[in-house]
Write a structure and sequence with these properties.
There is one protein chain. It is built from 13 helices and nine strands. The protein is α/β, with parallel strands linked by helices. A seven-stranded parallel β-sheet has the order 1-4-5-6-7-8-9. Helix 2 packs parallel to helix 5 (103-118).
Length: 325
């Protein structure tokens, strides 16, 4: 099977010659231009022979055009330098953005470079954070967003509307640039540790579904539900092709539980910590355990989240080989 055929079959629950495999991580030094992001993404693809690509851009890009600025580092995540929203009044100043200019244009150019280089060889998807997660990047604080939920819910909701409108335009543009879908990430809002389900329905799900409905014709939209004690079981009705989460995380559903509750595919199986700190044999063992749990149906092998860029190449190679053995 070709890579595209293999991924398509896995997403549909059809038989595959082997499970598709991939992984993704930040390159803190080369995330700041379209050319560099495309180059580092394609280097990883070629080195490990991934079957599909999840583009992993800098997390700050979602907030930059709304006025939040960041200090850049070559060896770690950027840090907030100036917060565009520091009060409820600032929420009312957020405006709809075009979604195809400024930093969005940079990201779209990276996608076009990847598209042209791959020439149809493998599918790729672009990361899009949820409006609530983007609000965290704009304000620079999860706790501050929680405060806004409690004290200024209407202002927060109106601001999330603005962000959702921009992200919907951008998500559509990602498909036009060649992406097979979007990797839609709730990030820190995927866990009950940070938000109740009642609050998520009001401040999360409403906006999630607007964006995902706008791109539901894409073949490879993925929902990423992050962290332990996640809300995955409550979002299995989302209109996506697959779900990605840390299946070994405390309080999280197993593959068997998720597969019994949805006809969509699952992505993951290996822990981020295993790829960083363990031996190749441990990576292989986790990967093969995941394969056994899913019986290689409706399953794409990966980590449960973006991996640490310090993860040793031998462990990434073990992940790749576990899909082919």
């Amino acid at each position: 099977m070709s890579k595209r055929e293999r991924v398509s079959a896995a997403l549909k629950g059809q038989a595959v010659d082997r499970v598709p495999v991939s992984a993704w991580w930040h390159d803190y030094k080369r995330e700041w231009s379209a050319a560099d992001l495309a180059e580092t993404t394609l280097e990883a693809y070629e080195t490990y022979g991934w079957d599909y690509i999840k583009v992993n851009p800098r997390f700050s890009y979602y907030a930059e055009d709304w006025g939040t600025t960041y200090r850049r580092y070559d060896d770690r995540m950027p840090e907030v330098d100036h917060k565009a929203v520091q009060s409820a009044a600032d929420l009312r100043k957020l405006i709809n953005l075009d979604g195809t200019t400024g930093v969005w244009a940079e990201q779209l150019e990276a996608l076009r470079i990847i598209r042209d280089t791959l020439a149809g060889e493998a599918p790729f998807i672009q990361t899009v954070f949820s409006p609530l997660a983007v609000m965290t990047r704009i304000t620079g604080s999860t706790k501050y967003v929680q405060k806004l939920m409690a004290e200024h819910p209407d202002d927060l909701g109106n601001a999330l509307d603005v962000i959702e409108t921009t992200l919907t335009r951008y998500a559509k543009a990602c498909l036009d640039a060649g992406a097979a879908g979007i990797f839609y990430a709730a990030v820190e809002w995927g866990t009950a540790d940070n938000i109740s389900w009642a609050d998520y329905e009001r401040f999360g799900k409403l906006y999630d579904l607007r964006i995902l409905d706008a791109v539901k014709g894409a073949p490879m939209n993925v929902l990423h539900v992050c962290r332990d004690n996640n809300h995955l079981e409550r979002v299995l009705d989302y209109p996506v092709a697959a779900f990605n989460w840390d299946v070994r995380g405390a309080g999280n559903p197993t593959f068997a539980e998720a597969l019994a509750s949805t006809d969509k595919a699952v992505i993951g199986g290996v822990r981020v910590a295993t790829l960083l700190d363990a031996q190749p044999s441990d990576v292989s063992a986790e990967a093969h355990k995941a394969r056994a749990e899913t019986e290689d149906r409706r399953f794409l092998l990966a980590a449960g989240c973006s991996i640490n860029p310090a993860s040793p190449p031998r462990n990434l190679q073990a992940l790749a080989e576990a899909a082919r053995s």
